[in-house]
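If you are new to this repository, start here. Below is one unmodified record pulled from the training split, so you can see the exact layout before writing a loader.
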Amino acid sequence: MLRKRGLAQAAKRAGRSTGQGTIGSYMHMGKVGALVEVNCESDFVARTEDFQTLAKELAMQVAASSPLYARREDIPAEVIEREKSIYRAQLENSKKPANVIEKIVEGKLESFYEQTVLVDQPSIRDPKVKVGQMVQATIAKVGENITVSRFARLKVGESA
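And here is the target side for that same chain:
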């Protein structure tokens, strides 16, 4: 079990930087916290206010929306195939042509990505903007590539 004190200490230590990036942190009311590793190409950019703000916003997003993966590439192939088979089974008796079923499955898969992949989720601040678009906007401001490497979401009472 994660204790409240452990969550607070983890979030406090999270301000440490990585090689070329930082670990953004956010804690909501001492009960839910998130750590997000965000990387860029230089240490200079990692110290900018725009980059630090993005790292904090990403941590807030993780705390609020509980994504399972940082990027689509992080999803194991068997998870994607399982989801596709579930969607196909749902449409089995629909008597639709195979090409239509495949388009519906792809649409449902896009919805799955929006729920489970951090960069595909709608922003908690502005649902019209996806998290990936926030990252792209910061890339445009700072002039360097930025990637979300990994994250952890912690909640008091849940085991790690």
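Two things worth knowing about this chain: Residues 7 and 33 are 7 Å apart (CA to CA). Residues 1-71+134-160 form a domain with the Tetrahydropterin Synthase; Chain A fold (CATH 3.30.479.20).
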